[in-house]
Amino acid sequence: MEEKVLVAYATRYGSTREVAGAIAAALQEEGATVDLMRADEVTDTAPYSMVVIGSPVYAGKWLDDALKLVTRHQKNLGRVPVALFAVGILIAEDTPENRQKVEAALDPAVHLVTPVSVGLFAGKLDAKALSFPLRMMLKVMKTPEGDYRDMDAIRRWAKSLPVRNG
Ligand SMILES: Cc1cc2nc3c(=O)[nH]c(=O)nc-3n(C[C@H](O)[C@H](O)[C@H](O)COP(=O)(O)O)c2cc1C
């Protein structure tokens, strides 16, 4: 059976789109046919033998579009392997506490589907793109700034997914 995989993502500033793109490319290298789509553009999950869904974390939460996708397609997603990922700047400082905080953003989704794998990735924060109040807030919270995405780790995770079990 041909493996057709959906990689769906939410994003505000584009860094998670690039993470999703790297995941899609790695899965293609593994021989899968991949559709890469924004979460709010997905209308049907039935054609896929595996579904990967990811979102950045904002204020401790996955973006609504990603959670809505899981909610809308919960029934079908119960029939295929589903992998979830979260992108958060906190992982730039990769401690168990920070991992836990970013992983907690997946809780509402994990309540709806049981993922075969969970990926937690450091993100990218470009303070220049933000409004002054947001910049100040992130400064007060001592949030790291910069691009901490580890594309090798992201690709490794994608290649560990069970694309051949669909
Ligand atoms: C207002 C704001 C709140 C954020 N909150 C969190 C957070 O709670 N935890 C975290 O790990 N990263 C947080 N981040 C960092 C983003 O998750 C990170 O920059 C991510 O790569 C952005 O993805 P995007 O470019 O796809 O929107 C926050 C960023 C902003 C601007």
Estimated helix fraction: 25-40%
The small molecules bound here are: flavin mononucleotide
Assigned CATH class: Alpha Beta
Number of strands: 8
Mean pLDDT: 95
CATH homologous superfamily - what is it? Flavodoxin domain
Low-confidence segments: none
Based on CA atoms alone, the radius of gyration comes out at 15 Å
How many domains in all? 1
For the record, the CATH architecture stands as: 3-Layer(aba) Sandwich
Distance between the termini: 8 Å
Shape: globular
What proportion of the residues form beta strands (DSSP E)?
15-25%
Secondary-structure element string: EHEEEHHEHHEEHEH
Predict the CATH topology. Rossmann fold
Describe what is shown at a glance.
It comes from Methanofollis tationis. With 166 residues, the protein is α/β, with parallel strands linked by helices. It is 36% helix and 24% strand.
Offer a few descriptive terms.
166 residues; alpha/beta; Rossmann fold; six-stranded mixed sheet; two-stranded antiparallel sheet; binds flavin mononucleotide
How would you describe what is shown here?
It holds the Pfam family Flavodoxin_5. InterPro entries: Flavodoxin/NO_synth, Flavodoxin_dom, Flavoprotein-like_sf, Protoporphyrinogen_IX_DH. It comes from Methanofollis tationis. The protein has 166 residues and is of the alpha/beta class. The protein has a single domain, classed as 3-Layer(aba) Sandwich (Rossmann fold). The protein contains seven helices and eight strands. The strands form two sheets. Strands 1, 2, 3, 4, 5 and 6 form a six-stranded mixed β-sheet that branches. The mean pLDDT is 95. The chain binds flavin mononucleotide. Flavin mononucleotide binds at residues 11-16, 56-60, 87-90, 102, 123-125, 130, 134.
